[in-house]
Specification:
- It is a single chain.
- By secondary structure, the chain is mainly β.
- 14% of the residues lie in helices and 48% in strands.
Length: 430
Amino acid sequence: MYKFSKSSLFYICLIVLLIGSLGVSYSIYSMPDNIDIFENETRSFHVNFPFEASFNDESKEIIKYTNKSNTLSQSLNISPLQLGNSQIDIKLFGKIPVKEISVNIVPDCQVIPGGHSIGVKMNIKGVLVVGMEEIETSDGTRINPSLESGLQIGDVILSINGINVNDAVHVQNIINDSMDEVKIKVKRKEEILNFSVRPVYSKIDEKYRIGLWVRDKTAGVGTLTYYNTQNKTFGALGHAITDIDTGIILNVNNGEILNSKVLSVQHGKSGYPGEIKGIFYEADKPIGALKANTQFGIFGEIYNGINNPMFSEAIPIGYQNDIKKGKAYILTTLEENKIEKFEIYIEKINYQTRPNTKSMVIRVTDDRLLKKSGGIVQGMSGSPILQDGKLIGAVTHVFVNDPSKGYAIFIEWMLRTCEQYNSDNQPVNN
């Protein structure tokens, strides 16, 4: 049997220590710079050696905390005392400052759960490039001016020749009226870029083209998650509306949510997710204005209030530390416009320090829902999850290979995203 020398053992231990320290360092630096805590919420934070966490003296008026430590880890339990701002200081060996985390204590809220089937109509800010096509010119050659100029699928066209574009027809008219080179301003992810493109004359339809397919609006069916009676805001879907061709999160220009009636439910099977099919009705009486399309749901303002026949009054929300594995319920609509309650089981809770749409793993246990839909189907996203009389989250994704299971988001992430929209007083897009 091979024996390690003392020097070899020293270097092996040093390497293991360095690898472990790198992992701990990454976890510290990946923590968010700002954390919001609701006034009735208790949050826990864990910091591992060689780092230590502490609060400044001013924090004692804002929060109460307990500090449990051992040789290798430190656990902080934070309970708010009043609204305000505090700060966690992370230090190497308790001496060298490495990170400051701002802790904001924000007002608690109660909301009316959703479960309503809603129609979503959204106009995109600018127009989205969803495809490219070669153009046959009068001499028979084929060319794509946009591709050659550097434009890409997924780019959002903001303006052409300094003119802000409103829709796909507007883009077509500007291009067709221009025989010379056009200046196109686009947004590519978070970057603003400018391109020069020379339109060519199309032999097929006898118009000037640059070889793009674009989209300016989208529509679909989803589920309302909650309605906040205090500020008349709503949250729905639990995830972003993305373009079906590019997968890009669409920027909201304007939009509305409408009443929707379920016509049929396509049964989900392994490898093939089902789908709720519905129609909009009372299109002249929209429910509310769509203001924000984010990674964690869509948000906006309700016009005249909204009712849930199961809840005459608002109920408290449950934070991630309140949630436990076991039985819970979802509210959703599978027939006409009737909201129903179905039993589920929370199998896994992913405790998180920053927003994520995969906060919980849930499994449908209600025989009625399994019979009607096979489990979770498209259009059910946003269905609120209730446990112990509290709204704790919303359905976000289905497991393609097992439609009885899916992911859910903590309700606190949706509420915090909505609060960000309200505080900024402008649309939030990620």
